[in-house]
Design a protein that fits this description.
With about 130 residues, this protein is α+β, with helices and mostly antiparallel strands. It has five helices and five strands; from the N terminus they run ββααααββαβ. The strands form two sheets. It has a three-stranded antiparallel sheet. A two-stranded antiparallel ribbon has the order 1-2. About 10% of the residues have low confidence.
């Protein structure tokens, strides 16, 4: 058996890879340089997109549900922490009511209702 020379960026599993030998094979997967299997490849892509702000947390959470996270406790720390962050529900996110009258934000709903103005809501990040 060949000695392991690569570590999966997601699960931390060590495996053997010979690029010079394997890249000519029909079933060569270039992602094998980063991760050891297709499940880890999918997880890596989801987390990478989330870190790069290419997808929202909610979308990343839904995509992660399609992967096998059974070994999460053994994943590499960075990956494990990001996955846990994605899976954690946002407790600090609240919606703040704002009312706009002629491009001015009104502090009280009552004053806006007096002027018969529509209200809208926006997500407030902490």
């Amino acid at each position: 058996m060949k000695k392991s020379n690569v570590t999966c960026s997601v699960c931390g599993k060590e495996y053997y890879l010979c690029i010079a030998c394997d890249r000519h094979k029909v079933d060569w997967k270039p992602w094998k340089v980063i991760v050891d299997n297709e499940n880890c490849y999918n997880i890596y892509n989801i987390v990478s997109k989330y870190i790069a702000n290419n997808i929202y947390k909610e979308e990343a959470r839904e995509l992660l549900k399609t992967t096998d996270l059974s070994g999460l406790n053994n994943f590499k720390n960075l990956m494990k922490n990001k996955i846990e962050e994605i899976l954690r529900e946002d407790e600090n996110v609240t919606f703040v009511e704002e009312t706009v009258i002629e491009n001015t934000i009104v502090d009280t709903v009552e004053s806006a209702e007096e002027k018969n103005v529509k209200k809208h809501y926006k997500k407030k990040d902490y």
